[in-house]
Amino acid sequence: MQQFDLIVIGSGPAGEKGAAQAAYFGKRVALIEHDPLLGGACVNTGTIPSKILRESALYFSGVQQRGLYGVDYSLKEGLTVENFMHRKDVIVEAQRQKILQNLVAHGVELMRGVASFEDANTISVWRPGHAAASVRAKVILIATGSTPHRAPEIPFDDEMIFDSDSILGMASIPRSMAIVGGGVIGCEYASIFTALGVEVALVDGRDRVLPFLDSEISQCLRERLTQLGVNFYLGERTTQIERTPNGVRIALQSGNTLAVETALFAAGRRGAVDQLHLEKAGVTLNKRGYVEVNEHYRTGIDGVYAAGDVIGFPALASTSMEQARIAVCHAFGFEYKKRLASMLPMGVYTIPEISAVGETEESCKEKKIDYEVGRAHFANNVRGQIVGDLSGMLKLIFRKSDRRLLGVQIIGDSATELIHLGMMALEAEMSLDIFIEFVFNYPTLSEMYKYAAYDGLGNLAGHKVREG
Known about the structure:
CATH class of the largest domain: Alpha Beta
Shape: globular
Structural class: alpha/beta
Largest sheet: 7 strands, mixed
CATH architecture of the largest domain: 3-Layer(bba) Sandwich
CATH topology of the largest domain: FAD/NAD(P)-binding domain
Number of strands: 22
Distance between the termini: 69 Å
């Protein structure tokens, strides 16, 4: 039986970075992956492929140019997802090779097969046509990611009725689609397919989309998606889903019926743990089906850690990598990385993009923080006008008493890039004044931080300062 210092299960962002971290400090590491393709959902079915489709949709549909030049692109009928993702294979394969090269460079031993626990320190690895092998380690990191929740009452066939992993395998771009679930995945795909000319109905049982966002930003997104062409059915639940000769029929609790060519059910995910036999190691799941961990990403069992989507929210590639590094450093006592940054950015790749970090107006009210807000609009920014985004907004939330920045919310072009300046200011506990003191390149979207700060000071003083 081979003995390692660390065994990592899964080659997604958490698995790769956790394995490399331990190997960098001289530990003997094995990484087990059952899929023929490295990279997990991030590289193969989710994060990267969906962003490639998004960029292709923006390019081919001319959504951004419509407001800028009055150009309306007509897309040919019968196009497939592959038509819009000709770059995917090249980019995704490059990422897989990058992961493999990183593992090789760090001396991580890659083992192919299905991993399952024999006990808290022993893993059985099995693959078809081979006898199961057992490996042991003092530390085990579970980084198996998540899988879409497939409710038994939904007749998934991955031809007309899809989940968030299978949707990119559809044969052709449909004329109509129902998306059930108004979370991040549902909203992203709703905007993408609408941009491609698909008639999209978005169904969610809640009264607003992305309720974890600042309510003003959430409302802005709904208005933009409505303008794009999305039809919303909020406060609705499905009562019956059935295949028809022409597609899918979905009955709603209100009595409404949706007749569409295809349907995407993006209403939840759960930890991908079915084959792990966690009970043999004593590892438990929470009520949402994710592995339970503490602040060091250790489970209730000494030596067994978990990181990434398998532990649930926020389930982002960016945070998953850091969680795994923290777990490994804690497990081996490395004096290197002990905690996540206190400020974690959230990126939502809808059309338009959204990014947020820190407090929202709602959280400030809940915490009884006396706050004020400053806003800057893309329509009043020269670069915003140049790129054709006339509806975006950057919003700063700050404490009244000392003007300390509390939160940043952005909706619009390059939001996921712009957020990092605000995040750095938050982490450094800076005040609103820092943005006024900064000199920004002109014309840039970044200078909206300065004018949002001016707007905030005007609101604080009780009078409005003209933006511009």
